[in-house]
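Look over this entry.
=====
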Amino acid sequence: MSNIPNEAVVLIKEVKPGLKNLNIVFIVLETGRVTKTKDGHEVRSCKVADKSGSITISVWDELGTLIQPGDIIRLTRGYASMWKGCLTLYTGRGGDLQKIGEFCMVYSEIPNFSEPNPDFLSQVSLQNKSNFHKVMSSHHENQQWQRWSLENVAELLSRRGADLASSGIGVHSHVTPYEVRDPMRAWVRKEHKRFVRALQELGVPIVDKLHFENQLPSLEQHFRVLEEF
């Protein structure tokens, strides 16, 4: 799906799943309760609105503590995705939330675009199926290369792991529930554990990050991890 041009400001009613580089001005109606991820991040689901309707935005950590009901906020470089069947806004990589005023803004709570929408769910389902077939085709073509790669990584660690540990270079591992919690992909979880354990035993500093840990495994989130850096 095409991105929104960086300078364009859109209305909430124009937001669709998969859109990126979203610039929106809205007023905060509710800040919602705080939930915590296993690695200590605080997440708030806030209800926001403009003249075209309302939507939920997910705000993480310090940004969430700064937002109050009545604040008028400009979202830059946000993106939209489905969360538990509901359309949700997020601050994307390099995105920002900036307070530009308070209270004085025309808005409408209805329609609420974060209410479950069969059309959006159908659209996401079709997109996931398309992505799945592309990935499976690519996986089939490169399966032999992947097996070769895993074997060579293991061999490389056995021969040069001590050099890596003494170099001071750290390793970051980024995975999603689709990779390590999907029962149909148990072999990926095993390979990931072996990889992390091998580095730890060699004394190599490693940060093992599980993204979207409170979400069910899905192919959509698997690709969305690229926007988390």
